[in-house]
Amino acid sequence: MKEFSNDIDKILFTEQQLYKRVKELAEEINNYYKGEPIIAVFVLKGSAFFASDLIRWLNMHVSMEFMSVSSYGQETISSGKLTIKKDIDSDVRGKRVLIIEDIIDTGITLSTLKREFEKRGAEDIKVVTMLSKPSRRMVDFQADFTGFEVPDVFVVGYGLDYADKYRNLPYIASLKKHVYEKKD
Ligand code: PRP
After folding, report:
1. I want to staple 174 with a disulfide (CB 3.0 to 4.6 A). Which of 9, 70, 78, 166 is the partner?
2. Alpha helices (H) in the chain, listed in sequence order
């Protein structure tokens, strides 16, 4: 961990704060589904830790599915173009789907992903995100369940990365400017 410490600006959410908030979110989600089974879609890679921690507190049957997607910049908002790099294995027609994300930034990924599940005929689609950056929205999108809102700073840890690094930090922190402003 030593080499990380120079790169971290400020810890925004400690391990204990994350643990507590994840349990609270699970309670909200349990109240919503009232024991009905769901398909939990882990949106890779960022949501891996959050999704694993969250679903262990859910009290209904949960099928785990994994998906990897990318959406492209502003010019594709109208077309809502989504590239699916890895798709889920099951048919969601008539099912309840809970999409689990680490962060909603512009909102483009989640709004297009939600539309994709609508097209596939899911009966109910909900989105839970650990973090949301409302100041960065380019499309009008809100998760159904949100862990914390964050300002427009570069956040890493608990699944969130910079250049595929820092995901394994147990807390969420902002990154020092020198890290993302230097070329490596
Ligand atoms: C992040 C995050 C969302 C998306 C949100 O994924 O997990 O999927 O960006 O951004 P948006 O609201 O601006 O569309 P990323 O592409 O960084 O992939 P990763 O989870 O593998 O790190």
Report:
1. 9
2. 2-5, 15-33, 48-55, 108-119, 177-181
